[in-house]
Protein backbone atom coordinates (compact mmCIF):
# COMPACT_ATOMS: atom_id res chain seq x y z
CA UNK A 1 0.00 0.00 0.00
CA UNK A 2 2.88 2.35 0.80
CA UNK A 3 4.28 2.21 -2.74
CA UNK A 4 0.89 3.25 -4.08
CA UNK A 5 0.89 6.35 -1.87
CA UNK A 6 4.41 7.23 -3.01
CA UNK A 7 3.35 6.76 -6.65
CA UNK A 8 0.43 9.14 -6.19
CA UNK A 9 2.69 11.74 -4.53
CA UNK A 10 5.14 11.70 -7.44
CA UNK A 11 2.28 11.87 -9.92
CA UNK A 12 0.84 14.98 -8.26
CA UNK A 13 4.27 16.65 -8.13
CA UNK A 14 4.96 15.94 -11.79
CA UNK A 15 1.66 17.39 -12.95
CA UNK A 16 1.64 20.53 -10.80
CA UNK A 17 5.29 21.67 -10.77
CA UNK A 18 5.97 24.02 -13.73
CA UNK A 19 8.94 23.49 -16.08
CA UNK A 20 12.28 24.60 -14.62
CA UNK A 21 13.47 27.59 -16.65
CA UNK A 22 14.01 31.29 -16.06
CA UNK A 23 12.24 33.87 -18.20
CA UNK A 24 15.54 35.54 -19.02
CA UNK A 25 17.21 32.36 -20.23
CA UNK A 26 14.17 31.39 -22.28
CA UNK A 27 14.07 34.80 -23.99
CA UNK A 28 17.68 34.41 -25.17
CA UNK A 29 17.73 30.67 -25.89
CA UNK A 30 17.03 31.03 -29.58
CA UNK A 31 17.66 34.63 -30.70
CA UNK A 32 17.70 35.79 -34.28
CA UNK A 33 20.13 38.11 -36.04
CA UNK A 34 19.26 41.12 -38.19
CA UNK A 35 21.89 42.66 -40.47
CA UNK A 36 21.43 45.83 -42.54
CA UNK A 37 24.02 46.46 -45.24
CA UNK A 38 23.59 49.93 -46.75
CA UNK A 39 27.01 51.59 -46.33
CA UNK A 40 27.00 55.31 -45.70
CA UNK A 41 23.41 55.42 -44.42
CA UNK A 42 21.65 55.35 -41.07
CA UNK A 43 19.11 52.59 -40.51
CA UNK A 44 16.31 52.95 -37.99
CA UNK A 45 15.00 49.69 -36.61
CA UNK A 46 11.63 50.99 -35.48
CA UNK A 47 11.14 50.64 -31.74
CA UNK A 48 14.79 49.60 -31.24
CA UNK A 49 17.12 52.44 -32.33
CA UNK A 50 19.04 54.11 -35.16
CA UNK A 51 22.41 52.80 -36.30
CA UNK A 52 25.10 53.68 -38.82
CA UNK A 53 25.30 50.86 -41.36
CA UNK A 54 26.47 48.20 -41.78
CA UNK A 55 24.96 47.01 -38.52
CA UNK A 56 23.78 43.77 -36.97
CA UNK A 57 21.54 43.23 -33.96
CA UNK A 58 20.70 40.22 -31.82
CA UNK A 59 16.89 40.26 -31.48
CA UNK A 60 14.00 38.16 -30.29
CA UNK A 61 12.26 36.37 -33.18
CA UNK A 62 9.40 38.43 -34.60
CA UNK A 63 8.54 41.11 -37.15
CA UNK A 64 10.60 44.29 -37.47
CA UNK A 65 10.46 47.45 -39.58
CA UNK A 66 13.65 48.98 -40.94
CA UNK A 67 13.68 52.52 -42.32
CA UNK A 68 16.54 54.19 -44.19
CA UNK A 69 15.90 57.88 -45.00
CA UNK A 70 17.53 59.79 -47.86
CA UNK A 71 16.89 60.90 -51.43
CA UNK A 72 15.26 57.50 -51.71
CA UNK A 73 13.60 56.45 -48.47
CA UNK A 74 13.64 52.70 -47.98
CA UNK A 75 11.23 50.92 -45.65
CA UNK A 76 11.34 47.16 -45.13
CA UNK A 77 9.23 44.84 -43.00
CA UNK A 78 10.89 41.49 -42.33
CA UNK A 79 10.70 38.66 -39.86
CA UNK A 80 13.65 37.67 -37.68
CA UNK A 81 13.93 33.90 -37.26
CA UNK A 82 15.63 32.05 -34.42
CA UNK A 83 19.23 30.92 -35.07
CA UNK A 84 19.11 32.62 -38.47
CA UNK A 85 20.68 35.77 -39.88
CA UNK A 86 18.24 37.95 -41.85
CA UNK A 87 20.37 40.13 -44.12
CA UNK A 88 18.94 43.24 -45.81
CA UNK A 89 21.13 44.70 -48.55
CA UNK A 90 20.19 48.13 -49.92
CA UNK A 91 21.74 50.36 -52.57
CA UNK A 92 19.68 53.59 -52.53
CA UNK A 93 21.59 55.06 -55.48
CA UNK A 94 20.63 52.16 -57.74
CA UNK A 95 17.00 52.45 -56.64
CA UNK A 96 17.08 56.16 -57.49
CA UNK A 97 18.43 55.33 -60.95
CA UNK A 98 15.62 52.79 -61.47
CA UNK A 99 12.92 55.49 -61.09
CA UNK A 100 12.77 58.18 -63.76
CA UNK A 101 10.38 60.86 -64.94
CA UNK A 102 9.33 64.48 -64.68
CA UNK A 103 8.10 66.21 -61.55
CA UNK A 104 9.32 63.57 -59.08
CA UNK A 105 9.86 65.16 -55.66
CA UNK A 106 10.80 62.04 -53.69
CA UNK A 107 10.85 58.26 -53.99
CA UNK A 108 10.04 55.55 -51.47
CA UNK A 109 11.04 51.91 -51.91
CA UNK A 110 8.95 49.60 -49.74
CA UNK A 111 9.54 45.90 -49.13
CA UNK A 112 7.16 43.75 -47.11
CA UNK A 113 7.82 40.03 -47.19
CA UNK A 114 4.46 39.19 -45.62
CA UNK A 115 2.46 41.17 -48.21
CA UNK A 116 1.68 40.61 -51.86
CA UNK A 117 1.08 43.92 -53.60
CA UNK A 118 0.24 42.18 -56.89
CA UNK A 119 -3.26 40.97 -56.34
CA UNK A 120 -5.14 38.55 -58.55
CA UNK A 121 -5.60 40.22 -61.92
CA UNK A 122 -8.94 40.95 -63.49
CA UNK A 123 -9.43 39.98 -67.11
CA UNK A 124 -9.77 42.35 -68.82
CA UNK A 125 -8.30 44.76 -66.25
CA UNK A 126 -10.65 47.67 -67.08
CA UNK A 127 -13.70 45.38 -67.18
CA UNK A 128 -13.82 47.09 -69.81
CA UNK A 129 -13.63 50.89 -70.04
CA UNK A 130 -15.95 51.85 -72.85
CA UNK A 131 -16.04 55.11 -74.76
CA UNK A 132 -18.87 57.26 -73.39
CA UNK A 133 -20.45 59.84 -75.65
CA UNK A 134 -22.38 62.91 -74.63
CA UNK A 135 -21.85 64.49 -71.23
CA UNK A 136 -21.98 61.29 -69.17
CA UNK A 137 -19.18 59.35 -67.53
CA UNK A 138 -18.70 56.02 -65.81
CA UNK A 139 -17.85 55.65 -62.14
CA UNK A 140 -15.05 53.30 -61.07
CA UNK A 141 -15.48 51.93 -57.55
CA UNK A 142 -12.29 53.12 -55.89
CA UNK A 143 -12.03 55.09 -52.69
CA UNK A 144 -9.14 57.43 -51.97
CA UNK A 145 -9.07 59.34 -48.70
CA UNK A 146 -5.75 61.18 -48.80
CA UNK A 147 -4.88 63.97 -49.24
CA UNK A 148 -8.62 64.65 -49.84
CA UNK A 149 -11.53 62.30 -50.66
CA UNK A 150 -11.34 61.36 -54.34
CA UNK A 151 -12.83 58.84 -56.76
CA UNK A 152 -12.23 57.74 -60.34
CA UNK A 153 -14.47 58.38 -63.33
CA UNK A 154 -13.89 57.44 -66.95
CA UNK A 155 -15.03 58.35 -70.44
CA UNK A 156 -12.93 55.66 -72.12
CA UNK A 157 -9.61 53.85 -71.74
CA UNK A 158 -7.69 57.05 -72.50
CA UNK A 159 -9.88 59.27 -70.37
CA UNK A 160 -9.66 58.20 -66.74
CA UNK A 161 -9.94 61.06 -64.24
CA UNK A 162 -9.17 61.35 -60.54
CA UNK A 163 -11.96 63.56 -59.16
CA UNK A 164 -11.61 65.43 -55.84
CA UNK A 165 -14.71 65.73 -53.69
CA UNK A 166 -16.79 68.90 -53.87
CA UNK A 167 -15.47 70.48 -57.07
CA UNK A 168 -16.62 71.74 -60.46
CA UNK A 169 -15.11 69.68 -63.30
CA UNK A 170 -15.15 69.63 -67.10
CA UNK A 171 -14.81 66.10 -68.50
CA UNK A 172 -15.64 66.48 -72.16
CA UNK A 173 -17.93 68.08 -74.73
CA UNK A 174 -21.21 67.09 -76.31
CA UNK A 175 -21.80 68.43 -79.80
CA UNK A 176 -19.30 71.21 -79.15
CA UNK A 177 -20.88 72.31 -75.87
CA UNK A 178 -18.95 72.03 -72.58
CA UNK A 179 -20.17 69.45 -70.08
CA UNK A 180 -19.55 70.80 -66.57
CA UNK A 181 -20.54 68.97 -63.38
CA UNK A 182 -20.51 69.50 -59.65
CA UNK A 183 -19.17 66.22 -58.24
CA UNK A 184 -19.34 64.77 -54.73
CA UNK A 185 -17.78 61.43 -53.73
CA UNK A 186 -19.04 59.14 -50.96
CA UNK A 187 -16.65 56.31 -50.20
CA UNK A 188 -16.43 55.20 -53.82
CA UNK A 189 -19.90 56.26 -55.00
CA UNK A 190 -20.36 59.53 -56.88
CA UNK A 191 -23.09 62.16 -57.10
CA UNK A 192 -22.85 64.48 -60.10
CA UNK A 193 -25.01 67.42 -61.07
CA UNK A 194 -24.85 69.35 -64.32
CA UNK A 195 -24.10 73.06 -63.72
CA UNK A 196 -23.39 76.23 -65.69
CA UNK A 197 -21.55 79.52 -65.13
CA UNK A 198 -18.92 77.90 -62.91
CA UNK A 199 -16.39 80.43 -61.59
CA UNK A 200 -13.64 77.79 -61.23
CA UNK A 201 -12.96 74.47 -62.97
CA UNK A 202 -10.42 71.93 -61.75
CA UNK A 203 -7.36 72.02 -64.05
CA UNK A 204 -5.83 68.69 -65.10
CA UNK A 205 -2.37 67.23 -65.55
CA UNK A 206 -1.78 63.88 -67.22
CA UNK A 207 0.34 61.05 -65.83
CA UNK A 208 1.73 58.42 -68.20
CA UNK A 209 2.95 55.46 -66.13
CA UNK A 210 5.20 52.71 -67.50
CA UNK A 211 7.35 49.98 -65.98
CA UNK A 212 9.86 47.23 -66.71
CA UNK A 213 8.42 44.64 -66.98
CA UNK A 214 4.94 45.67 -68.09
CA UNK A 215 1.66 44.71 -66.41
CA UNK A 216 2.67 45.69 -62.88
CA UNK A 217 0.02 46.82 -60.42
CA UNK A 218 -0.59 50.59 -60.41
CA UNK A 219 -1.81 52.75 -57.50
CA UNK A 220 -2.71 56.43 -57.31
CA UNK A 221 -2.59 58.16 -53.91
CA UNK A 222 -2.85 54.77 -52.21
CA UNK A 223 -6.28 54.02 -53.63
CA UNK A 224 -7.01 50.42 -54.48
CA UNK A 225 -10.33 48.66 -54.38
CA UNK A 226 -12.45 46.72 -56.87
CA UNK A 227 -10.85 48.04 -60.07
CA UNK A 228 -7.22 47.08 -60.50
CA UNK A 229 -4.94 48.96 -62.88
CA UNK A 230 -1.75 47.85 -64.58
CA UNK A 231 1.14 49.49 -66.38
CA UNK A 232 1.21 51.08 -68.88
CA UNK A 233 -1.47 53.43 -67.54
CA UNK A 234 -2.60 56.98 -68.32
CA UNK A 235 -4.68 59.07 -65.96
CA UNK A 236 -5.70 62.71 -65.53
CA UNK A 237 -5.11 64.09 -62.02
CA UNK A 238 -6.05 67.42 -60.41
CA UNK A 239 -3.43 70.16 -60.74
CA UNK A 240 -4.83 72.82 -58.40
CA UNK A 241 -1.88 75.18 -57.70
CA UNK A 242 -3.45 77.11 -54.79
CA UNK A 243 -6.51 77.23 -52.53
CA UNK A 244 -9.63 78.57 -54.24
CA UNK A 245 -12.33 80.26 -52.12
CA UNK A 246 -16.05 80.73 -52.74
CA UNK A 247 -16.29 79.04 -56.13
CA UNK A 248 -19.87 79.11 -57.46
CA UNK A 249 -21.97 77.65 -60.25
CA UNK A 250 -25.66 77.54 -61.10
CA UNK A 251 -27.32 74.14 -60.71
CA UNK A 252 -30.82 72.77 -61.13
CA UNK A 253 -31.91 73.96 -57.68
CA UNK A 254 -30.04 77.27 -57.71
CA UNK A 255 -26.53 78.51 -56.91
CA UNK A 256 -23.97 76.04 -55.56
CA UNK A 257 -21.21 77.60 -53.46
CA UNK A 258 -18.00 75.80 -52.50
CA UNK A 259 -16.33 77.59 -49.55
CA UNK A 260 -12.84 76.29 -50.37
CA UNK A 261 -11.22 74.00 -52.93
CA UNK A 262 -7.88 73.05 -51.42
CA UNK A 263 -4.58 73.09 -53.25
CA UNK A 264 -3.91 69.71 -54.82
CA UNK A 265 -0.82 69.54 -57.02
CA UNK A 266 1.08 66.53 -55.66
CA UNK A 267 0.16 62.88 -56.15
CA UNK A 268 1.65 59.54 -55.10
CA UNK A 269 2.22 57.13 -57.97
CA UNK A 270 2.69 53.54 -56.80
CA UNK A 271 3.97 50.64 -58.90
CA UNK A 272 4.08 47.22 -57.26
CA UNK A 273 5.19 43.65 -57.80
CA UNK A 274 4.82 40.95 -55.16
CA UNK A 275 6.69 42.18 -52.04
CA UNK A 276 7.88 45.43 -53.63
CA UNK A 277 6.13 48.79 -53.85
CA UNK A 278 7.77 51.88 -55.38
CA UNK A 279 6.04 55.18 -54.62
CA UNK A 280 6.96 58.42 -56.38
CA UNK A 281 5.65 61.74 -55.07
CA UNK A 282 4.99 63.80 -58.20
CA UNK A 283 4.35 67.57 -58.29
CA UNK A 284 2.20 68.58 -61.27
CA UNK A 285 1.15 71.78 -63.04
CA UNK A 286 -2.02 72.45 -65.09
CA UNK A 287 -2.10 71.16 -68.69
CA UNK A 288 1.25 69.35 -68.38
CA UNK A 289 2.06 65.68 -69.09
CA UNK A 290 4.42 63.68 -66.87
CA UNK A 291 6.02 60.34 -67.70
CA UNK A 292 6.95 58.09 -64.75
CA UNK A 293 8.86 54.85 -65.30
CA UNK A 294 10.04 52.23 -62.81
CA UNK A 295 12.53 49.52 -63.69
CA UNK A 296 11.42 46.96 -61.13
CA UNK A 297 14.17 44.52 -62.09
CA UNK A 298 16.78 47.09 -60.99
CA UNK A 299 14.85 47.80 -57.81
CA UNK A 300 14.74 44.12 -56.88
CA UNK A 301 18.48 43.77 -57.37
CA UNK A 302 19.14 46.89 -55.25
CA UNK A 303 16.92 45.81 -52.33
CA UNK A 304 17.34 42.18 -51.32
CA UNK A 305 16.61 40.04 -48.27
CA UNK A 306 18.56 36.84 -47.63
CA UNK A 307 18.78 34.35 -44.77
CA UNK A 308 21.65 32.25 -43.49
CA UNK A 309 21.82 29.72 -40.66
CA UNK A 310 23.95 30.85 -37.70
CA UNK A 311 26.00 28.71 -35.34
CA UNK A 312 25.85 30.54 -32.02
CA UNK A 313 27.78 29.81 -28.82
CA UNK A 314 27.08 31.11 -25.30
CA UNK A 315 28.95 34.02 -23.75
CA UNK A 316 28.39 34.57 -20.03
CA UNK A 317 28.89 38.19 -18.96
CA UNK A 318 28.97 39.39 -15.36
CA UNK A 319 30.33 42.42 -13.53
CA UNK A 320 31.23 43.81 -10.12
CA UNK A 321 29.10 45.61 -9.11
CA UNK A 322 26.28 43.85 -10.94
CA UNK A 323 23.26 45.20 -12.78
CA UNK A 324 25.54 47.03 -15.23
CA UNK A 325 24.44 48.06 -18.73
CA UNK A 326 26.42 46.03 -21.22
CA UNK A 327 27.04 46.16 -24.95
CA UNK A 328 28.89 43.39 -26.79
CA UNK A 329 30.02 44.10 -30.33
CA UNK A 330 32.36 42.83 -33.02
CA UNK A 331 32.14 46.18 -34.85
CA UNK A 332 29.01 45.23 -36.81
CA UNK A 333 26.93 42.83 -34.73
CA UNK A 334 25.92 44.08 -31.30
CA UNK A 335 23.77 42.94 -28.41
CA UNK A 336 22.63 44.85 -25.33
CA UNK A 337 22.10 43.30 -21.89
CA UNK A 338 22.27 43.86 -18.15
CA UNK A 339 24.68 41.83 -16.06
CA UNK A 340 24.59 38.99 -15.29
CA UNK A 341 23.55 37.67 -18.70
CA UNK A 342 24.10 34.75 -21.03
CA UNK A 343 24.31 35.81 -24.68
CA UNK A 344 24.36 33.62 -27.79
CA UNK A 345 26.67 34.94 -30.53
CA UNK A 346 28.42 33.64 -33.64
CA UNK A 347 32.11 32.87 -33.14
CA UNK A 348 34.34 35.93 -33.50
CA UNK A 349 36.32 38.64 -31.72
CA UNK A 350 34.16 40.79 -29.44
CA UNK A 351 34.52 43.84 -27.23
CA UNK A 352 32.48 43.85 -24.01
CA UNK A 353 31.73 47.25 -22.43
CA UNK A 354 29.89 47.44 -19.11
CA UNK A 355 28.91 50.63 -17.29
CA UNK A 356 26.96 51.65 -14.22
CA UNK A 357 26.72 55.24 -13.04
CA UNK A 358 30.27 56.63 -13.35
CA UNK A 359 31.86 53.17 -13.30
CA UNK A 360 32.82 51.18 -16.38
CA UNK A 361 35.11 48.51 -17.77
CA UNK A 362 36.09 47.03 -21.10
CA UNK A 363 37.30 43.56 -22.07
CA UNK A 364 38.13 41.75 -25.32
CA UNK A 365 36.83 38.22 -25.87
CA UNK A 366 37.75 35.66 -28.53
CA UNK A 367 34.62 33.55 -28.87
CA UNK A 368 35.10 30.12 -30.43
CA UNK A 369 33.24 27.88 -28.01
CA UNK A 370 31.44 28.82 -24.80
CA UNK A 371 33.25 31.59 -22.92
CA UNK A 372 32.77 34.04 -20.06
CA UNK A 373 33.75 37.61 -19.26
CA UNK A 374 33.88 39.17 -15.79
CA UNK A 375 34.35 42.93 -15.64
CA UNK A 376 35.39 44.83 -12.52
CA UNK A 377 34.03 48.34 -12.91
CA UNK A 378 36.09 51.37 -11.95
CA UNK A 379 35.74 55.17 -12.45
CA UNK A 380 36.33 56.12 -16.10
CA UNK A 381 34.99 58.63 -18.61
CA UNK A 382 34.84 59.05 -22.37
CA UNK A 383 34.65 62.12 -24.59
CA UNK A 384 32.39 62.70 -27.59
CA UNK A 385 32.76 65.49 -30.13
CA UNK A 386 29.74 66.01 -32.41
CA UNK A 387 30.25 67.82 -35.73
CA UNK A 388 27.06 68.81 -37.55
CA UNK A 389 26.28 70.11 -41.02
CA UNK A 390 24.76 72.69 -40.86
CA UNK A 391 26.77 73.94 -37.93
CA UNK A 392 23.79 75.50 -36.12
CA UNK A 393 21.88 72.21 -35.89
CA UNK A 394 20.38 71.12 -32.57
CA UNK A 395 21.93 68.05 -30.92
CA UNK A 396 19.92 65.75 -28.65
CA UNK A 397 21.59 63.13 -26.47
CA UNK A 398 19.18 60.28 -25.66
CA UNK A 399 16.31 62.68 -26.39
CA UNK A 400 17.63 65.57 -24.26
CA UNK A 401 19.05 68.70 -25.92
CA UNK A 402 22.71 69.45 -25.18
CA UNK A 403 24.20 72.89 -25.64
CA UNK A 404 27.84 71.85 -26.02
CA UNK A 405 29.08 69.61 -28.82
CA UNK A 406 32.14 68.48 -26.82
CA UNK A 407 30.78 66.10 -24.22
CA UNK A 408 32.34 64.17 -21.34
CA UNK A 409 30.24 61.07 -20.74
CA UNK A 410 30.24 57.76 -18.96
CA UNK A 411 31.13 54.89 -21.31
CA UNK A 412 28.21 53.08 -22.89
CA UNK A 413 25.71 53.36 -25.73
CA UNK A 414 24.11 56.69 -26.69
CA UNK A 415 21.63 57.91 -29.28
CA UNK A 416 22.59 61.15 -31.02
CA UNK A 417 19.78 63.02 -32.83
CA UNK A 418 20.53 66.07 -34.97
CA UNK A 419 17.82 68.39 -36.29
CA UNK A 420 17.59 71.78 -37.98
CA UNK A 421 14.82 73.80 -39.69
CA UNK A 422 14.51 72.91 -43.37
CA UNK A 423 16.44 69.63 -42.97
CA UNK A 424 15.56 65.99 -42.37
CA UNK A 425 16.27 64.86 -38.81
CA UNK A 426 18.93 62.18 -38.45
CA UNK A 427 19.72 59.86 -35.53
CA UNK A 428 22.70 57.61 -34.98
CA UNK A 429 23.88 55.27 -32.24
CA UNK A 430 27.33 55.79 -30.66
CA UNK A 431 29.20 53.30 -28.45
CA UNK A 432 31.83 54.81 -26.14
CA UNK A 433 34.49 52.70 -24.43
CA UNK A 434 36.26 53.71 -21.18
CA UNK A 435 38.82 56.50 -21.76
CA UNK A 436 37.85 56.66 -25.46
CA UNK A 437 37.68 59.93 -27.40
CA UNK A 438 35.39 59.80 -30.45
CA UNK A 439 34.29 62.30 -33.11
CA UNK A 440 30.96 61.81 -34.87
CA UNK A 441 30.03 63.77 -38.00
CA UNK A 442 26.34 64.10 -38.89
CA UNK A 443 25.33 65.70 -42.20
CA UNK A 444 21.67 66.58 -42.60
CA UNK A 445 19.86 66.43 -45.92
CA UNK A 446 17.56 69.22 -47.04
CA UNK A 447 13.86 68.53 -46.60
CA UNK A 448 12.01 68.12 -49.93
CA UNK A 449 9.82 71.04 -50.90
CA UNK A 450 6.79 68.78 -50.54
CA UNK A 451 6.36 66.84 -47.32
CA UNK A 452 6.11 63.13 -47.96
CA UNK A 453 2.92 61.40 -46.84
CA UNK A 454 3.33 58.91 -44.05
CA UNK A 455 5.32 55.93 -45.22
CA UNK A 456 3.37 52.71 -44.99
CA UNK A 457 4.24 49.18 -45.90
CA UNK A 458 0.93 47.42 -45.76
CA UNK A 459 -0.68 45.35 -48.50
CA UNK A 460 -3.72 46.67 -50.35
CA UNK A 461 -7.03 46.25 -48.59
CA UNK A 462 -10.69 46.93 -49.10
CA UNK A 463 -12.10 44.01 -51.11
CA UNK A 464 -13.31 40.61 -49.98
CA UNK A 465 -10.24 39.04 -51.59
CA UNK A 466 -7.72 41.20 -49.76
CA UNK A 467 -4.52 39.75 -48.42
CA UNK A 468 -5.13 39.21 -44.71
CA UNK A 469 -1.59 38.59 -43.57
CA UNK A 470 1.09 41.11 -42.80
CA UNK A 471 -0.99 44.29 -42.50
CA UNK A 472 1.46 46.72 -40.94
CA UNK A 473 2.65 50.33 -40.87
CA UNK A 474 5.45 52.20 -39.26
CA UNK A 475 3.16 54.13 -36.94
CA UNK A 476 -0.14 53.47 -35.25
CA UNK A 477 -1.13 57.08 -34.64
CA UNK A 478 -4.52 56.95 -36.34
CA UNK A 479 -6.80 54.68 -38.31
CA UNK A 480 -7.37 55.11 -42.01
CA UNK A 481 -10.29 53.81 -44.06
CA UNK A 482 -10.08 50.11 -44.74
CA UNK A 483 -10.40 50.53 -48.50
CA UNK A 484 -7.13 52.35 -48.96
CA UNK A 485 -3.71 50.86 -49.33
CA UNK A 486 -2.58 51.97 -45.88
CA UNK A 487 -4.45 50.39 -42.95
CA UNK A 488 -2.87 50.72 -39.49
CA UNK A 489 -1.27 47.78 -37.79
CA UNK A 490 0.47 46.84 -34.57
CA UNK A 491 3.89 48.38 -33.84
CA UNK A 492 7.10 46.42 -33.67
CA UNK A 493 6.67 45.57 -30.00
CA UNK A 494 4.22 42.83 -30.97
CA UNK A 495 7.07 40.32 -31.15
CA UNK A 496 6.59 37.34 -28.87
CA UNK A 497 7.88 37.73 -25.33
CA UNK A 498 9.36 35.08 -23.07
CA UNK A 499 7.05 32.19 -22.26
CA UNK A 500 5.32 32.24 -18.88
CA UNK A 501 2.94 30.04 -16.97
CA UNK A 502 -0.30 29.48 -18.82
CA UNK A 503 -3.38 29.28 -16.58
CA UNK A 504 -5.10 27.19 -19.26
CA UNK A 505 -2.39 24.54 -19.14
CA UNK A 506 -2.62 24.46 -15.33
CA UNK A 507 -6.35 23.70 -15.47
CA UNK A 508 -5.66 20.98 -18.02
CA UNK A 509 -3.13 19.40 -15.66
CA UNK A 510 -5.60 19.53 -12.78
CA UNK A 511 -8.22 17.80 -14.96
CA UNK A 512 -5.74 15.07 -15.90
CA UNK A 513 -4.74 14.70 -12.26
CA UNK A 514 -8.36 14.26 -11.17
CA UNK A 515 -8.87 11.58 -13.81
CA UNK A 516 -5.73 9.70 -12.81
CA UNK A 517 -6.55 9.83 -9.09
CA UNK A 518 -10.06 8.52 -9.80
CA UNK A 519 -8.67 5.67 -11.90
CA UNK A 520 -6.12 4.69 -9.23
CA UNK A 521 -8.84 4.81 -6.57
CA UNK A 522 -11.05 2.42 -8.55
CA UNK A 523 -8.14 0.03 -9.10
CA UNK A 524 -7.39 -0.04 -5.38
CA UNK A 525 -11.03 -0.79 -4.52
CA UNK A 526 -11.18 -3.65 -7.03
CA UNK A 527 -7.98 -5.20 -5.64
CA UNK A 528 -9.51 -5.17 -2.16
From TrEMBL:
From the UniProt annotation, give the residues forming the signal peptide: none
Q: Does the keyword Membrane apply?
A: yes
Q: Which UniProt keywords apply?
A: Membrane, Transmembrane, Transmembrane helix
The chain positions of domain PEGA read 383-446
Q: Where is this region: Disordered?
A: 439-504
Transmembrane spans: 506-524
Composition bias, Pro residues? 487-499
Could you tell me which Gene3D superfamilies the record lists for this protein?
A: Carboxypeptidase-like, regulatory domain
- Mind telling me which Pfam families this protein's record contains? PEGA
**Name of this chain's protein:** PEGA domain-containing protein
